[in-house]
Design brief:
Layout lengths: L1 H11 L6 H9 L8 H9 L7 H24 L16 H19 L18 H4 L7 H36 L13 H15 L9 H13 L4 H5 L1 H16 L14 H15 L1 H9 L8 H6 L8 H13 L5 H13 L1 H6 L2 H9 L6 H12 L2
Helix pairs in contact: 1-2, 2-15, 4-11, 5-7, 5-8, 8-11, 9-11, 12-13, 12-16, 16-19
């Protein structure tokens, strides 16, 4: 392990990083020690430049820009100014209601992020002062709770008590069973993730927020927020936001329905996976074809969410070392998915449609290095 850490430290100390060498090293896994993964991901996701001398100014500029986003979009955006019943699509009330709709979905999703670990429920060491010391006014989850309650009272006026009680149950469900917000002055990590996703949706109106993005941003933020370097931890939010934005620029087509059939779309990726299985294990492919067990039934989630739902967080982070280091961006993802199928081939050959769907939709726990080694083997054929 010492030699591996030393190899990473040496390359990261170069005046200009040899990107190909870094990719090869990272492909085999980045050590958890000394915040190496956090730094390597920032470079592989094209946030930090290869030139060591340019890194400090890049970080300063980007972190300042992120602070500006928070100030302009969350801290002091100014409320709606025109009439609430103005039906113009450019109306500020119309924008406000649309934002709240998006926020409602984000809020619901981030309160359930990685429930197996306590990290996202715990307090960040670096809360955003303008937001956590605002008597709750600037907190996004407050806006969600208020909008749901307002919605319920509006419903009551027109549709009687039955409708109201239904909506109040809905507002209760937001705070029960899911992660709870922390008190004034503190902020949980899931609240930080909520802010990043809301900003992303606002700054990318052509795409906005799509359910599942929370699963993509979670592992990146977790990696950055547990960095051993205090300065990097302090700016985990800003750095994560830009890394996530860069990653989404590469995989955004997975999330856009109109692009499903294009070469970067999700259906094309599922066809590639099917072809990969066919080429590497005809018997398994024949069995899935016979049972009409389409890739859509199990691999849509695998591919769209980069396997973040199929494995524990440490395993996801190890898999992502290889994905981010892949020179053929995300070809290796196909090989990993194919390896997963081949490693349960006996079960698939013996199983009926129902048991096979269940097996692939709830992939059994397995040593991730076994899967990655098999994927490398497939990629070399």
């Amino acid at each position: 392990m010492y030699h591996i850490i030393k190899a990473f430290e040496d390359i990261l100390e170069q005046d200009v990083i040899d990107f190909e060498v870094l990719q090869k090293l990272a492909f085999n896994g980045v050590p958890d020690d000394k915040g190496l993964r956090s730094l390597v991901w920032r470079i592989l996701l094209h946030y930090l430049p290869k030139e060591k001398s340019a890194r400090e100014s890049t970080l300063k500029k980007k972190r300042q820009l992120y602070k500006q986003f928070i100030d302009e979009i969350i801290v002091s955006p100014g409320g709606p100014t025109d009439h609430p019943l103005n039906i113009s699509p450019d109306s500020s009330w119309c924008t406000y209601f649309k934002d709240n709709e998006v926020l409602l979905q984000i809020d619901k999703d981030v309160r359930r992020l990685c429930p197996d670990i306590s990290f996202f429920q715990s307090a960040t060491e670096f809360p955003c002062p303008e937001i956590v010391n605002s008597n709750g006014v600037k907190r996004l989850h407050k806006r969600v709770e208020q909008s749901v309650l307002k919605y319920s009272t509006l419903e009551r006026r027109g549709l009687g008590v039955a409708k109201l009680s239904n909506e109040i149950r809905r507002s209760d469900s937001i705070t029960s069973g899911d992660y709870a917000p922390l008190n004034e002055g503190c902020e949980a990590h899931w609240e930080v993730v909520e802010r990043m996703l809301f900003l992303y949706a606002k700054l990318n109106p052509g795409q906005g927020y799509v359910q599942g993005m929370n699963e993509i941003i979670g592992p990146i933020y977790h990696t950055f927020a547990i960095d051993t370097n205090k300065e990097y931890r302090q700016h985990a939010e800003a750095d994560c936001f830009f890394c996530f934005t860069n990653l989404m620029a590469e995989i955004r087509d997975f999330f856009i329905r109109t692009l499903d059939e294009t070469e970067s779309g999700i259906n094309y990726m599922m066809c590639k996976l099917s072809d990969c299985v066919k080429k590497n294990d005809r018997a398994v492919w024949d069995q899935l074809e016979r049972q009409e067990l389409r890739p859509q039934y199990y691999s849509f989630r695998w591919l769209t969410l980069l396997l973040s739902q199929e494995f524990s967080l440490p395993d996801v982070e190890r898999i992502w070392d290889s994905l981010f280091a892949d020179t053929q961006r995300f070809d290796f993802l196909i090989f990993i998915c194919c390896a997963m199928i081949l490693l349960v081939r006996q079960n698939l050959l013996n199983g009926d449609f129902a048991s096979n769907v269940k097996l692939l939709q709830n992939f059994p726990p397995m040593d991730v290095s076994l899967i990655l080694n098999k994927a490398v083997e497939i990629s070399n054929r």
